[in-house]
UniProtKB/TrEMBL annotation:
Domain (I/LWEQ) ranges: 7-248
PANTHER family membership: HUNTINGTIN INTERACTING PROTEIN 1, HUNTINGTIN-INTERACTING PROTEIN 1-RELATED PROTEIN
Designated gene of the protein: Hip1r
Pfam families assigned: I_LWEQ
Main subcellular localisation: cytoplasm
UniProt entry keywords in alphabetical sequence: Coiled coil, Cytoplasm
Source organism, top-level taxon: Eukaryota
Any Gene Ontology biological process: endocytosis
Protein's UniProt name: HIP1R protein
Species this chain originates from: Rhabdornis inornatus
Length: 280
């Protein structure tokens, strides 16, 4: 112990303190996320109606369910960590146990940070979607990130836990629940996006005859532009395939000087019969 670097001891002590601080910070971030979602829900009910209100409520409800699942996950993970420390530290203190297992401790801190950051990003993305200033794809990506960070936290906790631990079984069940809730967020986001886009593009009620005629002409122009662009892309695709075939043939037939040359095209003619084999 006397030969251990003093600076390393201080760093490890701080590392042990950071575990509890990060878990507490993650819990606070999730509580704040739940509170913000509830505020967004009330705001959406006051400022939107019809299909938009239905979509916003469905997305925010799925986000609320995901946050509750994450909160239970963090609580269960904290209980499992306390169990691991109590069963493994022996006569050492909690800080000494974390310091002794510094690699494992760093993994817990990283996973906890990832979960808290993912929850915060999910709420911000949901806020932008409800206000129609963000993209639905951001919400989907955030859901995937939360599922990944949850798996990271479970893996970090599972390393030191006993296989027969009840807290470990609860943590794994919480992880599956988080994944299910994240999938629900993705599903509600995709279906809501389809509903909103379909309503925005196909709602012609309230348009005058002149407005409808103008929209019809503009749509015809877009159709012609897209058809022209599609034809150009098809030509481009054909040229790319030709060049691909040339390069692929050149790789099979290489000149003596090391330069690749295209393989000769097969001659189209009448196939000759193969010579009859002579008897020995």
């Amino acid at each position: 112990q006397e030969l251990r670097p003093k600076s390393l001891d201080i760093k490890q002590e701080e590392l042990g303190d950071m575990v509890e601080k990060e878990m507490a910070s993650t819990s606070e971030a999730i509580e704040d996320a739940v509170r913000r979602i509830e505020e967004m829900m009330s705001q959406a009910r006051n400022e939107s109606s019809g299909v938009k209100l239905e979509v916003n409520e469905r997305i925010l409800n799925s986000c609320t369910a995901l946050m509750k699942a994450i909160r239970l996950l963090v609580t269960t993970s904290t209980n499992l960590q306390k169990e691991i420390v109590e069963s493994g530290r022996g006569a050492a203190t909690t800080q000494e146990f974390y310091a002794k297992n510094s690699r494992w401790t760093e993994g817990l801190i990283s996973a906890s940070k990832a979960v808290g950051w993912g929850a915060t990003q999910l709420v911000e993305s949901a806020d932008r979607v409800v206000l129609h200033t963000g993209k639905y794809e951001e919400l989907i990506v955030c859901s995937h990130e939360i599922a990944a960070s949850t798996a990271q936290l479970v893996a970090a906790s599972k390393v030191k836990a006993e296989k027969s631990s009840r807290n470990l079984a609860r943590l794994q069940e919480c992880s599956r629940n988080v994944n299910e809730m994240a999938a629900n967020v993705v599903a509600s986001t995709k279906s809501g996006q389809e509903q909103i886009e379909e309503k925005d593009t196909m709602d012609f009620s309230g348009m005058s005859l002149i407005k409808l005629k103008k929209e019809e002409m503009e749509t015809q122009v877009k159709v012609l532009e897209l058809e022209k662009r599609l034809e150009g892309e098809r030509v481009r695709l054909g040229e790319l395939r030709k060049q691909h075939y040339v390069l692929a043939g050149g790789c099979e037939d290489t000149a003596e000087d090391g330069e690749a040359r295209p393989a000769p095209a097969p001659r189209r003619g009448i196939l000759k019969k193969p010579p009859i084999a002579q008897k020995p």
